[in-house]
Specification:
By secondary structure, the protein is of the alpha/beta class. Helices cover 30% and strands 31% of the residues. The protein folds into 2 domains: 40 residues; 175 residues, Flavodoxin domain (Rossmann fold, 3-Layer(aba) Sandwich). Strands 4, 5, 6, 7, 8 and 9 form a 6-stranded mixed sheet that branches. It has a 3-stranded antiparallel sheet with strand order 1-2-3.
Length: 231
């Protein structure tokens, strides 16, 4: 019970139940010290309740090859919004990772999901397993997702039958209109549809932005921030 450290001197603490109202979280805690037994009621404001009890682990996979690219900027805005609400967020730039192409050797299928390649993907698989929320972000190249994102998706093969339960968000940037984006995200959809239980909770299609950083002149940046705050 780290949020009530002032309750010192008691030999035991037991949570006996909780009730959530619109404004507060009500906790009933029984404490004992020797022969002394009593009850205390702890009122915690709603924002603290959210941070302590409903914090989500968020994994943002950014496929942008440009450090100041448009989809990368949107990822950073999403991260800021999510962290401000007390969530734990990891933002991964695939371009900074050593991730080889899938060899289609099926070694992982014969060795309990262990890939024959020893690179950064093993850490990303573990991060994926721990995440409650998955954000997939990519620019559109030639009516498709970027090479970095496709490589990441292919290397998820060792656990493709055990992708778990995720809340999913898409962040996609493109130099043309939304019709082009919708034609280009089949690989994202194909991967997500293999997740055992999922819901696509939000999408940002940042359209008609070509130059790196151009998104900062649009409302898409605030859209990403607000989406992060509301996960």
């Amino acid at each position: 019970m780290p949020f009530i450290p002032e309750i010192g001197g008691f030999s035991e603490l037991f949570m006996t139940g909780f009730r959530v109202s619109a404004a507060n979280l009500l906790l009933r805690v029984k404490f004992t010290s020797g022969n002394e037994i009593g009850m205390i009621t702890v009122m915690i404001k709603q924002d603290l309740m959210r941070r302590r009890y409903f914090m989500k682990k968020v994994l943002i996979i950014s496929g942008s090859p440009r450090k100041k690219g448009n989809s990368q900027r949107l990822c950073e805005a999403f991260k800021k919004g999510a962290e401000e609400q007390g969530n734990s967020v990891e933002l991964v730039r695939l371009a900074e990772k050593k991730i080889g192409y899938c060899k289609a050797c099926d070694y992982c299928m014969k060795n309990n999901g262990t890939c024959v390649q020893k690179d950064d993907m093993s850490d990303l698989l573990e991060a994926y397993k721990k995440a409650d929320v998955l954000v997939l972000a990519t620019p559109v190249y030639f009516y498709g997702i970027c090479a970095q994102m496709k490589t990441f998706i292919d290397r998820m093969y060792p656990i493709w039958q055990h992708l778990g339960e995720k809340e999913v968000y898409y962040i996609v940037s493109a130099g043309l209109g939304e019709d082009i984006v919708k034609r280009s995200i089949g690989d994202l959809d194909g991967f997500v549809e293999h997740i055992e239980k999922y819901e696509i909770k939000g999408r940002i299609y940042a359209t008609n932005i070509m130059e790196a950083g151009k998104v900062c002149e649009t409302s898409f940046l605030d859209d990403a921030y607000q989406m992060g705050r509301n996960i």
